[in-house]
Amino acid sequence: MEHSRIALAHPADATPGGDRASASSAYWYPDGHTPSAVDVLNLLRRYRTAETAMRARTRSSMHMNETDLLALRHLLRAQQRGDLVRQRDLSTLLDISSASVTALVDRLEQSGHVERRPHPSDRRSVVVVPTADTDREVRHTLGDMHQRMIAVVDGMTGEQLVAVGTFLAGMVEAVEESSTPPTRSAQTR
Amino acid sequence: MEHSRIALAHPADATPGGDRASASSAYWYPDGHTPSAVDVLNLLRRYRTAETAMRARTRSSMHMNETDLLALRHLLRAQQRGDLVRQRDLSTLLDISSASVTALVDRLEQSGHVERRPHPSDRRSVVVVPTADTDREVRHTLGDMHQRMIAVVDGMTGEQLVAVGTFLAGMVEAVEESSTPPTRSAQTR
DNA sequence: GGCGAGTTGCTAGGTTGGCTAGCAACCATG
DNA sequence: CATGGTTGCTAGCCAACCTAGCAACTCGCC
User: In angstroms, how far is D25 C1' from B122 CA?
Assistant: First the structure.
């Protein structure tokens, strides 16, 4: 069983400086100095790593692969909103072929996570709905984490929230590469 | 060719409120109000989506899968630091079997991205090194993005950086779920 | 009304990238 | 120097994606 363990907590995303900065809410940088730009970006990468590991854990605890889980999340959100989801929708959302969606829904149906229902107005289509158990399961698995995340943000001042928002928006922009003029709007997409 | 396109810019990560908030650096929330906790978390999710899409783009532009790219990044970082990387190391880092690493290195060697070298002191081991071309390629592909990211962070005040750092550290903690006492250290791991 | 083009989800068969098992070469320790 | 652990390889398996092609259905247009 060389493998089994899935995603260690820290896949050694080691950086030159090591990854100290033990994740405490208030004092995340050891010395009292203002964090440098690089520190912050490292921390962002660290978050990404942690999140990936978390997903692996969830996936494993639900005996499910990434795509299936993504589909499930979308189904739950759509259900909450009262939207119908056809297989076609999953295909475009997940960017996989219709054949793969058939297989995917087969798996989820097999495991009792979703049900196929006839579409009310289009007899070609199949509507996919999550079961009540699925909702409970996901809520239970991810609910605590969401609580903690909200708690962190709730504990911040308005000014701090603006800073974080600005930062995240900047990261999105940087990553989306479109390199639009800094005047807002006008995205190519 | 139903597929080809990979990762649209916005895989419709639609949220109840829609995902307006066009990604401008300074004014990322439309009204002048302080962003709510949920706004910020939505933005974080949005970043995650954008980053995933970016990875898909990179992967496709380099004709490579996620694992291979991860391996490559690690190899480049190790090289910069002057460290040797054995296949075994990749195995533990990526959490895949030694057999899969053999296949992985085969692929990367085939495509000219890495070379196998004998280990200086252990004749069982194989040292994997990235080629100069690879370094150039990655630098070219990701360099601009890094510049933009650094620029964003550089443009922030010390106070703002602290806010962002606190936020990210909090997110890491929330996601790692260990639910350690808020006094730092003592991680289970 | 009916006919042709487009859409939806299914089946069939191929490819990729993981896996386990087992092995030869090598290291290291008593 | 023998014996047990480590490293990377081969062989064979499997999950989850793909493309191609099809039957059932919808819809727009005569």
Answer: 66
Residue of B75, B76, B63, B57 whose CA lies nearest to B6: B57
Predicted confidence at residue A166, as pLDDT, reads 87
Of the candidates B8, B148, B163, the beta carbon closest to that of A160 is on B163
Q: Are residues B75 and B115 in contact, defined by beta-carbon separation less than 8 angstroms?
A: no
Question: Which amino acid makes up residue B143?
Answer: G
- Protein-contacted bases of chain D (C-beta within 7 A): 5-12, 15-21, 24-27
**pLDDT score recorded for residue A28:** 56
pLDDT one-digit tens code per residue, B119-167: 999 999 999 999 999 998 888 877 888 888 888 888 888 888 888 888 8
pTM: 0.73
**Highest mean pLDDT of the ranges A18-22, A27-31, B13-17, B50-54:** B50-54
Per the listing, tokens 């300074």 go with B26
Nucleotides of C under 7 A from a protein CB: 6-13, 16-22, 25-28
DSSP string covering A114-168, please? EEEEE-SS-TT-EEEEE-HHHHHHHHHHHHHHHHHHHHHHHTS-HHHHHHHHHHH
* pLDDT of amino acid B29: 55
**CB within 7 A of nucleic chain C:** A 1-4, 86-88, 91, 98-99, 101-103, 105, 116, 122, 124-126; B 65-68, 95-100, 103-104, 107, 121-124
Place of tokens 């499910």: A64
A19-76 tens-digit pLDDT: 333 444 445 555 556 777 788 888 888 899 888 888 888 888 888 999 999 999 999 9
Bridge partners of B130? Answer: B114
Q: How many CA atoms lie within 13 A of A177 on its CB side?
A: 14
Distance A121 CA to D26 C1' (A): 10
Both structure tokens of A11: 């896949």
Per DSSP, the three-state class of B142 is helix
Model confidence at A159: pLDDT above 60? yes
Q: Do A35 and B161 touch (CB under 8 A)?
A: yes
